[in-house]
Amino acid sequence: xxxxxxxxxxxxxxxxxxxxxxxxxxxxxxxxxxxxxxxxxxxxxxxxxxxxxxxxxxxxxxxxxxxxxxxxxxxxxxxxxxxxxxxxxxxxxxxxxxxxxxxxxxxxxxxxxxxxxxxxxxxxxxxxxxxxxxxxxxxxxxxxxxxxxxxxxxxxxxxxxxxxxxxxxxxxxxxxxxxxxxxxxxxxxxxxxxxxxxxxxxxxxxxxxxxxxxxxxxxxxxxxxxxxxxxxxxxxxxxxxxxxxxxxxxxxxxxxxxxxxxxxxxxxxxxxxxxxxxxxxxxxxxxxxxxxxxxxxxxxxxxxxxxxxxxxxxxxxxxxxxxxxxxxxxxxxxxxxxxxxxxxxxxxxxxxxxxxxxxxxxxxxxxxxxxxxxxxxxxxxxxxxxxxxxxxxxxx
Length: 396
Prior knowledge:
It is built from seven helices and 26 strands. By secondary structure, the chain is α/β, with parallel strands linked by helices. Helix 4 (228-236) packs across helix 5. The longest helix has 19 residues, at 298-316.
């Protein structure tokens, strides 16, 4: 049932075609702040109160009337009495965060004072509101704090908590069914070394962990043999998921049935992309469920994930695009590539030197583990020469 890849689609074009077929999820849920890290705000968050809601000391020191410090300096200090009320000629001891007495309009830092009995020597002149956090200085009631679509970080939850808000409405995580396929694939729970021709199932593990890392929720499925009927059954039983990722069975061999089965249930949008490794990647849609079919060779599958599954997951989950970490480096030896293909070359960064690991060998997953970055070579470039400056995209 294998199909022939008649022509290759450029990676950028394939991604656009696929993303245009995907709608963001609208379903939301309310979560406690402790559960909101890396979740996406679904409705705008506004300040429900002023923060601070009182005038507070920004420094340890003494609350004073600034007019009492006019002309004060190290050589001409002003003496004020210590009291419980900052009246004219007196001051009140305060600590960072303390409420400021009504009569005070400034705080002198403890470093600029010297206590002398019941008096305090002030050695600097202050202006009104010096070292005072005014009401609403941080946030004002009604102020927009976070727009819908904001990715919540730990520091953001602290801001929200300071408003007295205990729960946040966030978008539901996309559920992604991960279906490994192949007669040669055996469960990872197998304690014995697989027979020749058999391999442990690792693609599904890798895919699921990346799904979780990128903001989705992986649903791990059992291995499906290279049978059109069984592949169809597995897909049908997971059409309640928001996305399906099938591992293996995407090429043109007699046992590569996945793209044809997807097409029979819905529509294959792209089969065959100018991606090295990752050429046999297929992208489809069944109803409103996007389907990513990645090659069985691990590195090719990983590259397909980066180029198609990750942006699709971000769009579905309303997750903002996060710029990739790119390091400028110089390659230590020539990197070959094939014109017409976007090539992912694995490299090891050593300072500002990038040592190529390999550009071929899409079944050698350990090459990615050894590498810490990719050099992406555009379709219109035939490799890079030794000593050339390149951008290295760090592998997350």
